[in-house]
Amino acid sequence: MIIATDMPEVARCAVNQCAFNSDDACHARAITIGEGSDPDCDTFFDNSHHTHSSRTAGVGACKMTDCSHNEDLECSAESIQVGKSGDSVECLTYNTRH
Ligand code: SF4
Ligand code: SF4
């Protein structure tokens, strides 16, 4: 079994109402980005319960194949930032391939 340990870090997430967020950081083990045509955070969970974990999340998977950082459905960026874009919660590091 191969265990991934080299995931890009979620360097910052400004979405404080998410259950995985505290101190502007994401503390899930790994998040998934991309649903539909926008780079939404699929792991976003609007809940009053907040994790007590101190770990920093990695990007486990990303469905945005049109992002320049996407390689074979994984993120190859050094790190990403997540935040609000209009009403949605999105990867702000998303960069459309030209
Ligand atoms: S990156 Fe996603 S799962 Fe993590 S705190 Fe932000 S919205 Fe929540
Ligand atoms: S930077 Fe691109 S490949 Fe990485 S998580 Fe964001 S949208 Fe996906």
From TrEMBL:
Protein name: DUF1540 domain-containing protein
Domain annotation DUF1540: ranges: 12-44, 62-93
Highest taxon listed in the record's lineage: Bacteria
One family name in Pfam for this protein: DUF1540
